[in-house]
């Protein structure tokens, strides 16, 4: 069957969904609420499962050209500068680091011209027989399917899943920025109650992030960059240099939230995808990765089911909900553990990590993350 869809949201998940639909012969209209299309954010890493999803969508070569090998998970330090683990020479690791805008552009370039409409703030979604009607402003579209990829604060989820709880804050907050600096190695610095990530993303840019505990959500500072400096005062180089090379007005500060498990990702002919379905902590680098997986599985389910769209959506829900909700729980636990302020726990954790030879880190990481990283996408029509 060939069909037509409305995709709500023009971020990474929404564009991936549109590409997947195109590959199975569907057409789609992507509705993006922002007046200018682009990706808000700074940096991200993509793991092997995400790269396989990008390959199935036909954009792997372009994505690899835009990314930078990221060995930071093997390069662990403490605030004084000492190494807990050190990436061995020649070790690149299985991850690629991206500026979010670069990966977004790779996906946007693969979406047919004219499929994306900006300035479209969706305000209504309703079922009408074998169609779904999506409205924004004075306009509306009818389609065989609506894909809600409109993020953690999804309008579509609020309209059609009224029983769903609001995104939950668990006590973590994060600052993010892009510094223009050369000669910076990828690394993760583990402090007590906070961590600092440095990840080169190409063209002389380094993405950095400071994750920390927060007593309550919504606390903001007149000078966010100054607050970051205060929290990492005395930490090793190149952290001070990265902050010095960051424009103060470009620092992003977000509280981290995730979603409690939903009973289903489908209502009629409306399906949730990405953060709209399973927003998660960023500590396993799986937020965007799971939206890419969603896009491939949705397209494959539609291709397998022919004219039976409800059966396809049921198959999508069955395949995606258990996996994504498990990863939400795992990412939450990892995120809360990484910002624990307990002195004894921090000492035990860093001591245990130091006991592992650096040469064993790649194999241990691959084994520990195999349930996530070893995912294989269903094949899409070529």
What does this structure look like?
With 382 residues, the chain is of the alpha/beta class. The protein has a domain at 4-69 and 95-167 and 259-337: FAD/NAD(P)-binding domain (3-Layer(bba) Sandwich), CATH 3.50.50.60. Helix content is 35%, strand content 26%. The chain contains 13 helices and 19 strands. The chain has helices at 12-23, 48-56, 60-66, 100-109, 155-160, 224-231, 239-244, 275-278, 287-305, 309-338, 343-354, 361-368, 370-373, and strands at 4-8, 27-32, 43-46, 68-70, 76-77, 83-85, 95-99, 116-118, 122-128, 131-136, 139-143, 145-148, 168-180, 187-191, 194-202, 205-213, 252-258, 266-267, 270-272. The strands form four sheets. The chain has a seven-stranded mixed β-sheet. Strand 18 (266-267) and strand 19 form a beta hairpin. Helix 1 runs parallel beside helix 9 and helix 2 (48-56) crosses helix 3 (60-66). It is globular. It starts with a strand and ends in a 9-residue tail after the last helix. The mean pLDDT is 95.
Topology:
Blueprint: E1 4-8, H1 12-23, E2 27-32, E3 43-46, H2 48-56, H3 60-66, E4 68-70, E5 76-77, E6 83-85, E7 95-99, H4 100-109, E8 116-118, E9 122-128, E10 131-136, E11 139-143, E12 145-148, H5 155-160, E13 168-180, E14 187-191, E15 194-202, E16 205-213, H6 224-231, H7 239-244, E17 252-258, E18 266-267, E19 270-272, H8 275-278, H9 287-305, H10 309-338, H11 343-354, H12 361-368, H13 370-373
Parallel strand pairs: 1-2, 1-12, 2-8, 5-14, 12-19
Antiparallel strand pairs: 3-7, 4-7, 5-6, 9-10, 10-11, 13-16, 13-17, 14-15, 15-16, 18-19
Helix pairs in contact: 1-4, 1-9, 2-3, 2-9, 9-10
């Amino acid at each position: 069957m060939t069909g037509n869809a409305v995709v709500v949201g023009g971020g990474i998940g929404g564009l991936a969904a549109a590409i997947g639909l195109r590959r199975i012969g569907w057409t789609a209209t992507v509705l993006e609420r922002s007046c200018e299309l682009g990706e808000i954010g700074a940096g991200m890493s993509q793991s092997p499962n995400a790269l396989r999803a990008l390959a199935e969508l036909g954009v792997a070569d372009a994505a690899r050209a835009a990314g930078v090998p990221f060995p930071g998970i093997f390069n662990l330090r403490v605030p004084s500068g000492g190494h807990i683990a050190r990436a061995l020479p020649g070790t690149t690791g299985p991850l690629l680091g991206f500026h979010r805008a670069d990966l977004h552009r790779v996906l946007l370039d693969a979406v047919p011209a004219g499929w994306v409409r900006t300035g479209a703030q969706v305000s209504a979604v309703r079922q009408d027989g074998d169609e779904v009607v999506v409205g924004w402003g004075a306009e509306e579209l009818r389609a065989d399917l609506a894909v809600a990829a409109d993020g953690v604060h999804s309008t579509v989820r609020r309209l059609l899943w009224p029983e769903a709880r609001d995104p939950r804050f668990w006590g973590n907050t994060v600052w993010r920025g892009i510094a223009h600096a050369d000669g910076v190695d990828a690394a993760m610095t583990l402090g007590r109650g906070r961590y600092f990530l440095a990840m080169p993303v190409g063209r002389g840019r380094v993405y950095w992030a400071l994750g920390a505990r927060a007593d309550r959500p919504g606390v903001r500072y007149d000078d966010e960059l100054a607050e970051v400096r205060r929290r990492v005062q005395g930490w090793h180089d190149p952290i001070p240099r990265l902050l010095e090379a960051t424009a103060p007005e470009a620092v992003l500060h977000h509280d981290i939230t995730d979603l409690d498990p939903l009973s289903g990702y489908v209502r009629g002919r409306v399906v949730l995808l990405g953060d709209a379905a399973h927003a998660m902590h960023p500590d396993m680098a799986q937020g965007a990765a799971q939206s890419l997986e969603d896009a491939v599985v949705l397209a494959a389910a539609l291709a397998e089911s022919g004219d039976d769209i409800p059966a396809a959506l049921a198959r999508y829900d069955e395949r995606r909900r258990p996996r994504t909700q498990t990863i939400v729980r795992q990412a939450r636990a990892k995120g809360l553990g990484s910002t624990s302020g307990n002195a004894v726990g921090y000492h035990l954790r860093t001591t245990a990590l130091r006991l592992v030879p650096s040469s064993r880190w790649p194999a241990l990481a691959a084994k520990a993350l195999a349930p996530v990283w070893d995912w294989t996408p269903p094949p899409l029509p070529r």
